[in-house]
Amino acid sequence: xxxxxxxxxxxxxxxxxxxxxxxxxxxxxxxxxxxxxxxxxxxxxxxxxxxxxxxxxxxxxxxxxxxxxxxxxxxxxxxxxxxxxxxxxxxxxxxxxxxxxxxxxxxxxxxxxxxxxxxxxxxxxxxxxxxxxxxxxxxxxxxxxxxxxxxxxxxxxxxxxxxxxxxxxxxxxxxxxxxxxxxxxxxxxxxxxxxxxxxxxxxxxxxxxxxxxxxxxxxxxxxx
Length: 224
Fold this sequence. Notes:
This protein is of the alpha/beta class. Helix content is 42%, strand content 21%. The chain contains eight helices and twelve strands. The strands form three sheets. A five-stranded parallel β-sheet has the order 2-1-3-4-5, with helices on both faces. A four-stranded antiparallel β-sheet has the order 6-7-8-9, with helices on one face. α4 links the parallel β4 and β5. The radius of gyration is 18 Å and the shape is globular. The model has no long low-confidence stretch (mean pLDDT 84).
């Protein structure tokens, strides 16, 4: 995997680069947004690690420009806890996942691999799987640990969106827009549907898969 690290903190960038290189990955490092744009255009990395605090343009703007120019490579953002609004903006503009600093190096690699597998369609057309949860987009069958799950149409749509994005967060706004367009129902409706979906998907299972990310939205993952 060819990874571009966009990080202006030299020590942090070097730590991440050394770890990923030791794992057998090809690594480039950019200390600014303009440098990152140049490397993406000339070297075509497979995935990008993006820090928000860049000297020439912030991570939200860089992400917006990459997507506007048609680049589809997975983007995993590194954020500080105080950057909540930036995290929401990143996800809305096309980032695939984010991690809050400080973060374990092994988790960064794990998230990159997960996003790259999703981008390359490892599971094949119409098949989505997270842990022991399997969703077939063509037959609309859903199973957890081999046990069929009965879902309503809206429940299926929500689960499909969460699984397509996994392990990234799906914002409340994105879910509401996908389900109800420009006329969402009263504010607690989505929460009610998520609660019902949890009861079906996580019932009797030792590991919860559907998680609330307070103030942002929801994510589906077997990671704690």
